Amino acid sequence: MRLISSNNEKKLNWLFLAGGPGLGSESLANLVELLTLPGNLWYLDLPGDGSNNSDQWDFSNWQQGLIEATQQVDNVILVAHSSGGMFALATAGLEANLTGLVLMDSAPHTGWQQYFIEYVEKHPLPGIAPLQQRYQESPSNDLLKELTIACLPYFSKAESREKMEAMLKTLSFNHKSHLWSESNFDQTYEAKWVPQAIPTLIFAGEQDNLTPLKLFSESVDFQRDNILIREIAAASHYPWFDNPEQIKQVFAEFCQTMAFE
């Protein structure tokens, strides 16, 4: 955990957890810079995420790392993107460590993969198949970065693509974490819990082709008074690049539900 900023408005601790896996929390820097939130803001990297790749840790310890991180400080609001949100929902008992939860462009089960596969089949990109084959045969951090950037049209809008590519080029990637998740998590993922009491915000871009909001909005389990579900207009899988004003609005709306002083 790394402290980003702090103020004394409220004793809240916002932990920003990236997707990936194998992608560092710096991938959320544009979001963090956009928001004005009460309390302390932290970057959270699971073992093996991005540059957090000490030989003493590997991604198989992700659940232990998530539980320990949410116990280090009080009044935790976990802000998790994509697979980060899936790891949160796959951790039974995590709600007891949280004061609030924000799930951004995530999913409650592995069904998102079929949705994405169908989209890719209908919208093939030239050069992706041989690049993916190279990665599978000789995986490396550099190849994972190259593959991710090549796939940008699948999870970004044309208007935001240049900014997103510039952001991705600065980041550390960890292919070992990516491959571990691909083999041990992605195919079997199912949410182990639904927030019962804590204020929760769930949002996704209207044009998210990876993890569409309907996976939550059409789930009866997530229709609860403590859960806000919001669609970000004209936005993709990283909606703060596409519609920053609405992102600020939904976070402000969520903050109004927080009763903690």
Could you describe the 3D structure shown?
This protein has 261 residues and is of the alpha/beta class. Helix content is 38%, strand content 15%. The chain contains 12 helices and 7 strands. The chain has a 7-stranded mixed beta sheet with strand order 1-3-2-4-5-6-7, sandwiched between helices. Helix 5 packs antiparallel against helix 6. It is globular and about 50 Å long. The mean pLDDT is 93.
Tell the overall outline: globular
CATH third-level topology: Rossmann fold
CATH classification class: Alpha Beta
Helix percent band: 25-40%
The CATH superfamily appears as Alpha/Beta hydrolase fold, catalytic domain
What is the domain total for the residues? Answer: 1
Cα end-to-end separation: 24 Å
Architecture, CATH level 2?
3-Layer(aba) Sandwich
Number of strands: 7
Rg calc: 17 Å
Structural class: alpha/beta
Q: What oligomeric state do the depicted chains represent?
A: single chain
- What order do the strands of the largest sheet run in, or round the barrel if closed? 1-3-2-4-5-6-7
Q: Work out the helix count.
A: 12
Report the sheet with the most strands, covering strand number, pairing sense and barrel closure: 7 strands, mixed
Unreliable parts? none
Estimated share of beta-strand residues? 15-25%
Nearest-integer average pLDDT: 93
Throw out a few tags for this protein.
261 residues, alpha/beta, Rossmann fold, seven-stranded mixed beta sheet, 15% strand, globular, transferase activity
Topology record:
Elements lengths: L1 E5 L6 E5 L11 H6 L5 E5 L17 H11 L3 E6 L1 H7 L8 E7 L7 H11 L5 H10 L3 H10 L1 H4 L5 H9 L5 H10 L15 E6 L8 H4 L9 E6 L6 H4 L1 H13 L5
Parallel strand pairs: 2-3, 2-4, 4-5, 5-6, 6-7
Antiparallel strand pairs: 1-3
Helix pairs in contact: 5-6
Keywords: Transferase
GO cellular component, one term: membrane
Protein name: Acetoin dehydrogenase E2 subunit dihydrolipoyllysine-residue acetyltransferase
